[in-house]
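This protein record is not my work; I was only asked to verify it. Take the sequence as given and treat only the tokens as open to question. I have pasted the whole thing underneath without changing anything:
***
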Amino acid sequence: MDTNGDEQTKKTRKVKKQVRKGDLPIVSGTGATDESVKQAWAERENAMYMDDKLVAETDEKKNELEASIYELRDKIDGVYEKFASEEEKEKLRAKLTETEDWLYEDGDDAIKSVYVAKQDEIRFIAGPIIQRYKEHIEAERQAVLKAEEEAAAKKRAELEAKKKAEEDSKEGDAEMKDAPEGEAQGETEEKQ
């Protein structure tokens, strides 16, 4: 078998490359938009951001109002009970119920300033009760601080007295050591 002969019988075909020549039009330009359009878009984006922020703040005020209603309703029969008269308690309970009913009915779509106004109305009624509670807590805290200061002063006085007694006993021992033995024994014999 002759492999060389097979190779010679196969002929390779040469491919000719096609080249096209022509003028390409070049147009100069940018893909950017006009400054006026960009400015309008930025203003629109800022307006949308402010709207979103207002909606979030409104929801936050609504939640604060609802939380304060529940918190005050719980505390008026708890920690604030001793600091409010029955008349004040009833007035506050009525205002809380009225505000809660408004919140779940008409106040669901209210604006932020209305929620703030309702919160202020509740604070106006609950403020004196809360103030009396805070004054009581502060008085208790001051009493504890005063008791701690007195205890610390007493302990310092005891330590100083103990230290003074130790120094006095050391001085007494030092005087005894300074005296010669014969003199110290003679004095003790004379005393007997």
Observations:
- The helical segments are 3-9, 35-76, 86-104, 112-178, 181-191.
- The chain has five helices and no strands.
